[in-house]
Amino acid sequence: MDDALVIGGTRFIGRHLVDELLEHGYDVTIFNRGSHENPFADDDRVRRIEGDRTNDSALEAAAIEAEPDAVFDCVAYYPKDVQAATRIFENCEAYVFVSSGAAYGREEIPKREDATPLADCSPEQAVDDSGATYGPRKAEGDRAVFAAAERGVRSMAVRPCIVYGPHDYTERLDFWIDRVNRFDRVVVPGDGTNVWHRAYVEDVASALRIVAERGEAGEAYNVGDRRLATLEETLGLIADQLDTTVEVVTAGPRELAAGDIEPADYVLYREYPHVLATGKLAGLGWESTPIDEAMARSVGDHLESDRDGSEHEPDRESEERVLGILDTL
């Protein structure tokens, strides 16, 4: 395969994917609406086609113009998007859908591609745009991938867990980096052992390329760091990269209530562990970046950016009330 079409390609996963493809000798075209700044505007190796991926006619026109060997669908959020794309690109050598670890419908440790069932998706959920239906919509997108493979399309799905790294516009990890960078004491909900599997963004990009090149039609592949880190350990990794120390102050629901905070208010906190098995992807030759190296790049990018995670709850003033209560115990 020589020519790749990235649907999306300018913000986060897609941006790193374009870099990954260029490093491996692909000619790359990106297809998007132009709603965000194009980091490849001055790179003559990357061609851009403007259009709305939810408009089938625009997507068909992009297919004719780009003539891709491989298609990477980074912004398919509704099942109908995947159904249309697998039809339009049915003659390509590879179609890879960016799904999600949220597509799983049962809590298991770990969640396995060929064993853990997907979430159900009702017709109403399939067209809903709320966060509550994100997982079901991705699951239905996976089923569209499987159905296309049965028709002879070489279509695959990649399921990342929480993605982090440079250019992360969600600012989820930035919230915690900012806390460690500014405060000696950082409140962590629960006992600090909570695990929400994460995936370094460059590893997600390499996974997408490897699945396109080596994956089997009709298969899904989980992607996540090969070494898990608890939330408390994550703060330690951040502190190491900032060359500082941090006191992790754990707080249960009763203590957090002093600041009108619930444990679930904290970004990257999940009461039940979310862990994805990644052996199937590793079997294709994929490897993950060492976690300290991934954190070093993430922290470095945070310091060079204006991201601080302040859009996420809770605010520091509320935490100070919690710390005050804990100091009296």
From TrEMBL:
Residues 299-322 have a biased composition (Basic and acidic residues). InterPro entries: Epimerase_deHydtase, NAD(P)-bd_dom_sf. It comes from Natronococcus occultus SP4. SUPFAM superfamilies: NAD(P)-binding Rossmann-fold domains. This is Nucleoside-diphosphate-sugar epimerase. Belongs to the NAD(P)-dependent epimerase/dehydratase family. Pfam families: Epimerase. Residues 110-136, 299-329 are annotated as: Disordered. PANTHER family: DTDP-D-GLUCOSE 4,6-DEHYDRATASE-RELATED. Residues 4-224 form the NAD-dependent epimerase/dehydratase domain. It comes from the Archaea.
